Amino acid sequence: MATKGSNSIHRSSSRPLLDLSKAEIQGNVEEKYPTILLPNQSDDLSHLALDIGGSLIKLVYFSRHEGQSTNDKRMKILKDKLGILNGNRRSYPILGGRLHFVKFETNKINECLEFIYSKKLHCGGWESHHSDSTNDQNAVIKATGGGAYKFADLFKERLGISLDKEDEMDCLVAGANFLLKAIRHEAYTHMEGQKEFIQIDPNDLFPYLLVNIGSGVSMIKVDGDGKFERVSGTNVGGGTYWGLGRLLTNCSSFDELLELSQKGDNRTTDMLVGDIYGTDYPKIGLSASTIASSFGKATLENKELEEYRPEDISLSLLRMISYNIGQISYLNALRFGLKRIFFGGFFIRGHAYTMDAISFAVHFWSKGTAQAMFLRHEGFLGALGAFMSYEKHGLDDLMVHQFVERFPMGAPYTGGKIHGPPLRNLNEKISWMEKFLQKGTEITAPVPMTPPGTTGLGGFEVPLSKGSTLRSDASALNVGVLHLIPTLEVFPLLVDPKMYEPNTVDLSDHSELEYWLTILSEHLPDLVDKAVASEGGTDDSKRRGDAFARAFSAHLARLMEEPAAYGKLGLANLLEMREECLREFQFVDAYRSIKQRENEASLAVLHDLLMELDSLDEETRLLTLIEGVLAANIFDWGSRACVDLYHKGTIIEIYRMSRNKMQRPWRVDDFDAFKERMLGSGDKKPLPHRRALLFVDNSGADIVLGMLPLARELLRRGTEVVLVGNSLPALNDVTAMELPDIVAEAAKHCDILRRAAESGGLLVDAMTNTLDGSKEKLPSVPLMVVENGCGSPCIDFRQVSSELAAAAKDADLIILEGMGRSLHTNLYAQFKCDALKLAMVKNQRLAEKLVQGNIYDCVCKYEPAY
Amino acid sequence: MDPRRAETGKNSDQIQSGHVYHLALDIGGSLAKLVYFTKNDEHIVGSEKKKSPMKASGISNSSRNSPVLNGRLNFKKFETSKINDCLEFINSMKLHLGAISFQMIAMVMNAGCQQPESPGSQTITIKATGGGAYKYADLFKEKFRISLDKEDEMDCLVAGANFLLETIHQEAFTYMGNQKQFVWIDKNDLYPYLLVNIGSGVGMIKVEGDGKFERVSGTSIGGGTFWGLGKLLTKCKSFDELLDLSYRGNNRAVDMLVGDIYGGMDYSKIGLSSTTIASSFGRAISENKERDDYKPEDIARSLLRMISNNIGQISYLTALRFGLKRIFFGGFFIRRHPFTMDTLSVAVNFWSKGEAKAMFLQHEGFLGAVGAFMSSDKHGLKELLANQKVERPPSKLSFSLDQTQVPQQDGELNGDESIECSVYGA
């Protein structure tokens, strides 16, 4: 059978093959069975790389995604059917995984060693089921940084791994290139405390200046991958700050010194232009507050060192060094005609004031023509570069759209500052979360449960013992776990993928952020109840529910404090974070039972509805169908207002009531234009669409009474229909996995749907039943189902599943339904094909903001192909 | 003119070598610089200056009919924090009176001049520049009824540098590895150049001609930083003491060198030798060492190298940016201190890969004061120069260094220096 054949091809290509390049016989060739070393055997190689610096050890490691769970099998069959039907669907190797970032203090190198040991990173990688001792012996780990030499013996002795030293600068550049090309919004500017994330076109990245501020400063002109030159530098760097700072203050750590600077006033130590002139010196454009001479004021006074505040000294030093670096960097960028300057290195460490000072200097000296940029993963450049130096990691050609960054509990606080005990499994994570204390919006992190000196998740400060709060350094950005999903693609129907921004609501507006954080906060107890109930309310589920609530509250608190903590933040990201957090605590589908119940209730009345529709003339029917979609869209558990409605009536009552209330014109009403495209005007009968992609929203009435009848109408007109569902559950949204069952049920009531579903391979069992009679009937256009590649109530068209991308190639109509996909995101998205965006606005604030209307207003936005 | 004051002025001749005719001030953040003109007494010229190539005779042939004053330009500096010493000095030397007497003599000597007003109750005006010209204006007014006529600092700097570079033979020199080498600069090929004035802070000025210049860059890490940080880190009581210390120190104790990072090896891949400083003060982070455990000499040395190196680098990059082939370093920070000059030269040499050379001025430190002095055109110095240029080769100019009074040996210049010159009473 064709299905099987294709399946097996698919499987074989998905399995990693042995890479035989650079194979050599290891040991004595005279031996009868010498061991053959396959250095490029990606499966055996531990994907761990280290950057061991003077103060911090940075670790980057790659873990494979756990295999598809077995209950996906059914989905797989359907997918394969679709694959045949679509014809052009590519088979893809599933080599996805996750890139993790962890830090340790170098002087606590034992913690690092034990972390590696406990995660078995030294032998064959993450959760390897086949780590045998021979692998242990031969493990070679890429490492960079001065410590790669210093600690080589220690690693050999303790873990039996050899460190393969990579050149520091090679690594830096490789790391920066990778991040800037593969990670969306990796770069940001920082002016006067404001972060702004910047998307850089990977094709227009080079050349740039990379300024690495370690003890000293290196300035590297980067022209491409592996093409770079150290063009300048300065000996006045982080070491100067810390060295002079130590001599001048009693600080015992670099961070303490930095901390001091935040409370400093450099006017007591620096000679300002105003000190000299008593006023501005406008002739040369210097304001009175410009520093004329760093520490110059100390020359005018007969004060002892002890009479100066260490805070002031620290600030003065910081400004002196940051300004100087900014100036020299700008001059070098200018000299080599480089338009972008990226700053990295341990001196910056996400410290807001340092970044501000450098940005100020670049701005000042360039008279506003240049901007300093920083990298979210700045501390990990070297480690990432070392990681990239493995010859077979398969990450070379990865693109922005194949990475999704997630912030599981634990990761944000290890990538950031807070860290806890080793979290080897969910149970430990929950135990850890249970130690969290919440006071108002503040979440207090727990004291580590394990005695010090065992294992730790790393981090470079130990604020835990002081009982500090989660916020730690307010300016610190969290570095999440990068999920590598090679199958993700850019949706091919976007008019301009580079300019595309999914989020309609920009959360950089503080009041907007506060509003949505409050909404999510308020919704939380209800969600926890649903989640716990979905798992039968067991003690275990209650415990997980509690941990989820704490974890998600911690995220919200963190975001309230530092909106940029997780990178560029849009409403879609926020909503997705909630779903991810649920999944993190193994709530697979919090709305499972609700969805089932509503689907059943809606399917029960579908037949009546279809009869009613069929009695209408074509024009009235089209309007009624659109009204139906809008009316059915009211069933949305994501909306507080609708949750309240539920207590007041049954599904069909609400549906009918709400459809009857539909009064045209709607708030946004392009129905007439859509109708003309569908039915034409006068004698002109337009050609039906070839293929329509229907992005469905909620389960229950929404899909059954709203979208399915619309799909049926399109099928009837000879348009192929692809129902696009979520890959993973989000709220009560219908998933791609659930759709075939719903369609199969619906098909029982309707011949059109049945034949289309058969043709689309959705009715596996029914297929044989109808084989005998199939010749009598006209072959129908197919009704298909694809997954969208995400698990969020919104959709980001830069990252969709490859099957959706494949299905899109023949599509000439897109219908986006629901708030998440057509309002929160994509309201302004432009497509190369006709697009219809349908939603009922179930949030007063959003209604006012987006459509200048009120809650329950409707949006019917039709845009012909751009 | 008040005869009594003139008398006292005469008495002070014991401590000065001539009659004071003119005075200009440059009051910076750290130092106050004085330039004043004294008229040579005949016998002094006779006894001390027999071989001196100056003279009035050289000028008497010129087309000008104005009388000529033979004398010298004197240079003196004070720490700004001891501005009272400066005031004392002016008072004791009656310099402020000299200022008026110059004007008056000039006027008297000019045919058809009017009778000067009686200066008895009149406020005397003298040229001044530098930030302190604003800051201490009241003090001068109170103490001596001197009103400071403020000249723009940068105008003065540039005017001073242009004047010195155009007229003084052997004004510019390079300094590398203890080798001082004078550079003859063709006056016609002087511009454009970069003037780096290292005072408390550092100003970098692109000079394209007389009065044609622009401050294009600068840095706050300058002389004030050296002295300020030095003062906090060592027990030094004066800038010069700190400089002295630095001469004896070894920066390896506090600086992190390339060799420290790469295990004594050069990082040849990027062309850094093992003795290159990777991070100034980068070794001063040892946990068990306190400030007192480091030798002040070493700290001073490291500071000096850090600051000189940085200034050299930014200067070179700035010169490169504007396509300027010459960089002149001036300002009090240098003080003809060999080590300072050497580091600056090394830095420029290093960053330019040998393509550019740092040059210094004999009268660094007095550029502003000379410029302020020049700004009053009464003495006609510039015109004199213009004439001289036509008539004589540069070596025979009337202006020459008074070798006997210029200490050459070390940086210990206490500001006593003079240039022999002739000035028209315009």
UniProtKB/TrEMBL annotation, chain A:
Required cofactor names: Mn(2+); Ni(2+)
**Record-linked Gene3D superfamilies:** 3.30.420.40, 3.30.420.510, AF1104-like (1.20.1700.10), Uncharacterised protein PF01937, DUF89, domain 3 (3.40.50.10880)
Q: Name one GO biological process term.
A: coenzyme A biosynthetic process
Q: Name one Pfam family in it.
A: Fumble
The record's GO CC annotations read:
cytosol; nucleus
Enzyme Commission number(s) of this protein: 2.7.1.33
Q: Does the keyword Manganese apply?
A: yes
Output the InterPro entries linked to this UniProt entry: ARMT-1-like_metal-bd_sf, ARMT1-like_metal-bd, At2g17340_3_helix_bundle, ATPase_NBD, PanK_long, Type_II_PanK
Which CDD domains does the record associate with it? ASKHA_NBD_PanK-II_Pank4
Looking at the record, the residues that make up the Damage-control phosphatase ARMT1-like metal-binding domain are 524-850
Q: What is its main location?
A: cytoplasm
Q: In which pathway does it act?
A: Cofactor biosynthesis; coenzyme A biosynthesis; CoA from (R)-pantothenate: step 1/5
**Keywords for the protein's UniProt record, in alphabetical order:** ATP-binding, Coenzyme A biosynthesis, Cytoplasm, Hydrolase, Kinase, Manganese, Metal-binding, Nickel, Nucleotide-binding, Transferase
Superkingdom, natural source = Eukaryota
The reaction(s) this protein catalyses: (R)-4'-phosphopantetheine sulfonate + H2O = (R)-pantetheine sulfonate + phosphate; (R)-4'-phosphopantetheine + H2O = (R)-pantetheine + phosphate; (R)-pantothenate + ATP = (R)-4'-phosphopantothenate + ADP + H(+)
GO: which molecular function terms? ATP binding; hydrolase activity; metal ion binding; pantothenate kinase activity
Keyword Oxidoreductase annotated:
no
The compartments listed are: Cytoplasm
Cross-referenced PANTHER family = 4'-PHOSPHOPANTETHEINE PHOSPHATASE (PTHR12280:SF20), PANTOTHENATE KINASE (PTHR12280)
NCBIfam families per UniProt: panK_eukar (TIGR00555)
Annotated function: Catalyzes the phosphorylation of pantothenate the first step in CoA biosynthesis. May play a role in the physiological regulation of the intracellular CoA concentration.
Q: Which family does it belong to?
A: In the N-terminal section; belongs to the type II pantothenate kinase family.
The molecule here is called Pantothenate kinase 2
Organism in which the protein naturally occurs: Arachis duranensis
Q: Which gene encodes it?
A: LOC107491568
